[in-house]
Amino acid sequence: MTRRLTGNELDAWRSFLRAHARLVRVLEAELVAKHPVSLGGYDVLVQLAEAPDRRLRMAELADAVLLSRSGVTRLVDRLEVAGMVTRERFASDGRGVVAVLTTKGLDTLREAARTHLAGVMRHFVEQFDPEELPGFGAMCARLAE
Q1: What distance in Å separates the CA atoms of residue 3 and residue 12, rounded to the nearest whole number?
Q2: What number of other Cβ atoms are within 10 A of residue 98's Cβ?
Q3: Would the CA dihedral through 45, 50, 55, 59 be positive or negative?
Q4: Residue 94 has pLDDT above 70, yes or no
Q5: DSSP states of 62-89 as a string?
Q6: What is the DSSP letter of 2?
């Protein structure tokens, strides 16, 4: 049997969950209010923009954005309808499909990045003293592993 969480441990856990949920809601709302892309869509566009030749296999994209393959498929479907992403067969494997960032997708990303990064600055970075961020980042990196 696992021991029970202490009050301090439970408070820290709940605070982390509330902070994450609040940040995601606020950043999502700011993006959607000004741009034709959700926070998940923005993440897909970022991953494709940073990939070689601005293309990724769908499975690699799913891993990069931490969504299920079906979740990425639905999101890429919406981005494809909006003209921000196309799908192509993988050259060396006729069964594989890659998502490719279009010029419209890159332009949308550039515009949305201004809004998103300003929100990250305002709602996250500015909430810490500069000397607190490296330690917080290291703790989050440890959690992510």
Answers
A1: 16
A2: 22
A3: negative
A4: no
A5: HHHHT--HHHHHHHHHHHHHTTSEEEEE
A6: P
Give me 95's structure tokens.
């069964």
Q: Is 66 helix (H, G, I), strand (E, B) or coil?
A: coil
Domain 11-144 class, CATH top level: mainly alpha
pLDDT tens track for 22-74: 999 999 999 999 999 999 999 999 999 999 999 999 989 999 997 777 889 99
Please check whether residue 27 is in contact with residue 116, taking contact to mean a CB–CB distance below 8 angstroms.
Answer: yes
Do β-strands 55-57 and 85-90 pair in parallel, antiparallel, or remain unpaired? unpaired
**Packing angle between helix 7-34 and helix 39-50, nearest 10 degrees?**
80
Range list of β-strands (E), the chain: 55-57, 85-90, 93-101
Burial of 41 (0-12, 13-18, 19+ CB in 10 A): buried
Strand partners, 97: 89
In the chain, where the domains are located: 11-144
Mean pLDDT of the chain: 94
